Amino acid sequence: MSNLIITLLPAAIVLVPMCIVAFPSLWLSRLKIRGKRSPLTRDLLRSPGESLRQQIEDINIDINAYLLVSVIAPLALYAIFLTQLHFEKIHNPALLAVLYSIAMTIYEAIVIVKLTRALTRRNHLRLGLDAEMSIGQELNQLMLDGFRVYHDFQADKFNIDHIVIGQNGVFAVETKGKAKPKSTDDKKNWSVIYDGQALQFPNWTERDYLPQARRQADWLAKWLSSAIGDAVTVRPALAITGWNTELRKPCDVIIFSGKNPPFAKIKIDTPLTAGMIQRIAHQLEQKCRDVEPQAYKKESK
Question: What is the rounded distance in angstroms from the CA atom of residue 237 to the CA atom of residue 248?
Fold first, then answer.
């Protein structure tokens, strides 16, 4: 038992100071906010890309953990090795060093793979977040024309990036952020073409975006119709951030590049009444106002 304690002593020397610093800091921070509450009386509305922002925060925690263990683990293992050499009778220290080196190499390789995946995933999420924020800010300008705009609507195991409501209807907007080619300045390579069947990007054909936008609009139409008790039609829209869009054939999905959203120009035979708009907006707000204020958060019971 004494040998085990001696062997684990270096790891304890590494971890105990961290706990000594972390726990009092957490306790003092909680003590300072005890007995206080947020001045806000209700939750906040979801911002553009709220789900992506939360995912990025989770991945940042994972990345920090990978970086931390990649530094601490080799130091702890090396300290254990030196302790064994000093306090125990090691007949073949070279073999032990080789075994420790192999174990550490395998461990670090696993950490590197996980870290690389996390960094790649975070980069994709950041691009998506940038795209949703950009489109969300453009859509918010429609509120000057009397539209209602909601973001990051949580549906059944998916989310609708943006929902626009006006006298000319309800629109479900799916946002896509795709990186542009870097090796050319030819603006033709920055265009996406709808040929009546699919979206043609410079280097690939995309067939999933339009069906996804349609599915989300159909789901929202059914949900709203059930929620308010009257039939609601929802038109699908697709925003491809920063890309020039060219429609060579008519499309039931509204496709635009993000700038100057076309919803204000759309005409319908029977405009929505103010009462209907309010009923729809009420249902959407109940779902979108669920972001808890960050300061003085309530303790979970």
Answer: 17
Domain-located, residue 140 = no
pTM of the model: 0.81
Structure tokens at 185: 């300045």
For residue 76, the tally of other CB atoms under 10 A from its CB is 18
Nearest in space to 261 (alpha carbons), one of 160, 93, 147: 147
**Whether 286 and 186 share a structural domain:** yes
pLDDT digits (tens, 9 = 90+) for 30-68: 655 666 667 777 888 999 999 999 999 999 999 999 998
Domains identified in the chain, total number:
2
Per the structure, the complete domain to which residue 205 belongs is given by: 145-291
